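P.,

For your records, the input lines for the assembly:
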Amino acid sequence: MDITKINRRSFVGTTAAGTLAALMGRDPEVVKAAAPAATADAIIVLWMGGGMAQTETWDPKRYTPFAPGVRTEQVLSTFPAIDTAVDNIKISQGLERVAEVMDRAALIRTFQAADLGFILHSRHQYHWHTGYIPPQSLAMPHLGAVIAKTLGPRNPTVPPFVAIGQNLEIGAESPALKSFHTAGFLGTEYGPFLIADPQDAASAVRPPAEVGDARFKSRRKLYEGLLAQEPVYQYAGDFQREALIRSLDAADRLLTSPSAKAFDLSLEPKKSFDVYNNSRFGQGCLLARRLVEAGARYIEVTTEYIPFRYWDSHESGHERAAAMKAEIDAPVAQLILDLEERGLLNRTLVVLASEFGRDAITEGKVGKEVKDQAQTPDVMTLPKHYGMHRHFTAAGAVVMFGGGIKRGMVYGKTADERPCTTIENPVPMEDLHATMYRALGIAPDTAFMVEKRPVYVTKEGKGKPIHELFA
Amino acid sequence: MKYCSFFWILALPLAAADRVDFDRQVHAILAERCIVCHSQEKRSGGLSLATWRDTLDGGRSGTTVRPGSSATSILIARVTGESQPRMPLGGAPLNDSQIAILKTWIDDGARATPTSAPAKAKWEAPLTLTRPAVSDASIDRFVSDYLAKNSLPQPALVSDTQFARRTYLDVWGLLPTPDQLREFTANTDPDKRSKLISALLGNNRNYAENWITFWNDLLRNDEGVNYYSETASRKSITPWLLGALESNMPYDRFVSSLLNPKAPTDPEGFLIGVNWRGVVSVSQTPALQAAQNTAQVFLGINLKCNSCHDSFISHWKLKDAYSLASYFAPEPKLQLYRCDVAQDQFSEPSFLYPELNRAPASSSLADRRAAAAAIFLDPRDGRLARTLVNRIWERLLGHGIVENSDEMDGEPWSPELLDWLASDFVDHGYDLKQLIATILESRAYQAVAVAHKANEPTHTYRGPEVRRLTAEQFADAVGSITGDWHVYQPSGGKPGEYSREWHVAANPLTRALGRPIRDQVYSTRDTQATTLQALELVNGETLTHWLSRGAKKMLGELPPDPGSAYDLPYSVKNGPQEFDIDVSKADKIWLIVKDNGSYSPEKVQAFWQLGSDAVRQVKTPSVTVLDIKGKGFTNLHGKVGIENKEVTSDINPQVRFFVFETEPNMERLTHVAPALPVEAGPVLKTPEEIVNRVYWHALGRAPSPSERALAVKTMAGHSATGLADLLWAVMMKPEFQLIY
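Structure tokens returned:
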């Protein structure tokens, strides 16, 4: 990976589709259904890209330690379970800190990814992030863009939609990733403010290093001066001219506002910073907290999806899961505690999720198996065989904290023996989204008029929020 | 019971007192017998009869009422049973006097009230082109007619410099250089505008490198962009497209090649569409995508809705999309799927307009594609030429003759202009350059631009609209003003090329300015100014760095990038390679390992093995500097490669090795051929020279004394940084970014 590519905040501002809506100055009309009262004002999505193994994290099953000769089909979890702050909820060893704050959480164990055939991560990620399965005949907007557009910014000097931690140049799946990191037909105003490296976030809102503060100011003055000295011509009142000038003013305000300090992690007290500072993801959680405090609306922090890396273990799953849990444990727990301490947790929805789960044997769902992508032998002989290496779409875990969600509960049940399929209360994509939207006060059949037809925020407007999750 | 039907034969329009009153008489009937299904909420068949406006708007089957012609009005055909099913559906028919009221009302003009004027018929786009029956047909003639009819003034013409800036940008996508501008304005030839247009169009390379962006957007083409597909992945059509534009391929042959690619060099990639791996909704399989894309791009018809089910917003049905898809599918017979549920219905190749339909010679894919191409290009298919003409007009004047080129059923503000221009285009052999020239030559194009009016219920043409530089034009402006261009790196170890922006991968700057991802068809670009876009312009890395380099280049302060002594794009297949380099003149040697996108660079075991030394493993990426000053070495020989025995897919090494004898520019390691897309300007010496040049090139005029004073002041002292700041300030001005 070219290190210079991930040090910069890069803005992805893809245009709206070549539709009616894209013709200059026309935003798609929002058809708002009767909106429920919001229980949250902001949302943080902690994105575990790559397929997070649910039996190794939030839905532990019978533990089988590694020993050469163990049959793969016997292995459901490679970690023992641990108690949490909630009596009847156990999670996987390695998440001890989060276990202490599970009493602020609702745990869904039965998220159902779609059946899309030969599994491609980015396709499921597109589905998760837009609610629609690609390919689509319209450029579909990211959840963050939908929320930014429907609710507007909380603080006009903070970008409403911020995406942290994902480098978009990852090789073959880059175009697929980029295709959903967009505001699509909603227009570039609602696109993601991308920060690949949180430590570098401050530079995203400071003058470019090459320019420096002093030149930044003098350059702006030169621009204003030249504008003022412009010979008067017939286009003085032109709205496009005014719009361009206003947009530069807005950018300048953002860069010089006190809110910009939220991006600077070096301003965080060292003691606090150190808790988060175990990884880019950890730093991202800190940045997310600071941005919620400053007034962002939708913030996504990811452990990053790169094929075969991080959560996407095709071998050595146990070792990989241990490392990933170590990466997320302290920062996630601290994020929840910090939000609570600042009185923000009740009105901030935190959602930890992944595009699907994992299993040692089944690729896809039982009865709907798809082309295999891992080589785990029937009998484990080496440590690299030990783990969950296949993509499992019959169950997945989603953890929701705060934001008006009921606390200390489990929703949905999976089987205790293989296949650990959902047996009670499946949660399909549209219902998961409807639940998130409901918390923010957006009806699941809210729609945008595009090319003369309504595009709903959940598929066909039929998403149903999970009522049991609301206090 | 037998009815005898009345026929009201109207010889004269009725007096107001005798007219049918819509509210009291017509609405009474509709409210009692029709609105139960044709209410605004229910809209059976897409039709509401709740208000006068709704009644005239019609529904999915088209207009229900043709003012002045009850005989051809669907409303009457339905209530008389001439068109089945008879209306009201499932109820007793209207009686004779009710039907008579409706007929009279329609024949008298379907007026809103007895004292209103006759209603205007809802526009229905004819299929075939209508050649206006005038002898002096021209763009300006029809525009003048329109302006006169609407009591609008004839706009004045733009100045020479504005004309030049516009025309250079529209034909070449480049700003005129100060020299080109001066030459044009000084020229006293009364025909100079016409000659400039010809000269610009005559430069095939510059024309093609501009217009390829327009076509890339429409045809979903982007190099090096693939979606992970098991079957045919999206194939680039760039070589064909660039060639077609450079040779001014006639549009009919252009479309035919896209619909029916036969030769190996033909653009098959267009019909393949964007394929994602796995199980895809039937409505997005390649054949259905082909139906949607061909209908949208070439005919201005939206088949997206009815690829899944019968459309709720138009008269197109599911089988229409499938019938068109059948020309492009592997098998001619396609099973219909409604919302991904299989139907007991199969399609065969059949065109959207039955009058143009023709059966393929055989059921082979080649013959079906050939039939599709022939149908689209049928002389009776006016939509093909109309849609293209509208797209080009929209590109050049900022606003189509029909509002939305993707919905060519919309009403043109001048049907005569549109059809004449389309006919003229066809008559000239579908010559795209000729069409562009015709438009550029017109007074209409050369008129002073007006501001775009947002949210107009119906558009009134007042002149060309103010437009904005596209992302590519903005980037190419930086390149041409500074002389510093982005580099296009061909594959296979060839040298790089200084290139115009269309050819290089999208970067944060061009994405912010509107370069799309091209997984969809883009007919127009979003030109809105947004905060995120402004952030990129104000403190984005791409522009900052570019202007910094560019300023140095303009001042002659940018040293040439040193070339490498050795350059190996590593191939895992070929394995480690030996090298032998003359280093007798070098004091230092840089051994560089560049990472070009390995999945796990930390796992790549790159090594250098020099002379008889042991193998030296290095990181990826890495730079190792050897100090050989005074040591008397003449040659550096050895081996370079990667040691990994097991090259698994999660490492995917993409590595390039370099040896340099002078300190390299880490951003320009590969050798770049010296040719520039636009000849660089002279190296500038004094602040006055610089300020003048920037203004003339960027804005097409001299700076006023106060502008000059302010700008020169900025240049004082740190000239390269001052110039970078000046370039930035000027490029942020709307005067630069907008095309007046």
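Two observations worth noting. Chain B is about 35% helix and 10% strand. Chain B touches chain A through 100 residues (CB under 8 Å).

Regards
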